[in-house]
Design brief:
7% helix; 8 strands; 8-stranded mixed β-sheet; Ubiquitin-like (UB roll); globular; 1 helix
Amino acid sequence: MGTRLPLRGGFERGPAVTLTLDGRPVTAYEGESVATALFAEGHVATRRTRTGEPRGVFCGMGVCFDCLVVVDGVPNTRACVTWVSEGMDVRRQDGFGPLREDG
């Protein structure tokens, strides 16, 4: 989808890494959070509550626990304070588990 901001003023991104997002390979960059990778792929909601309400990044510093995702099979991982890494498997969360394929 490519919604990352262009770099200016001498800034550089870290090395590219490939991670899996909801079963699909995507490119992210070392030094980015999982939340950044989700935003760059066009996903504002990181999860749904048990009652189906969408949630996403609220505080952006790991305090509110709204941005929970499943990382490498571990649910309830905060996307805003988890750094991307090569081969990481990230899934948006539905209640207490991964988001369903049809969701």
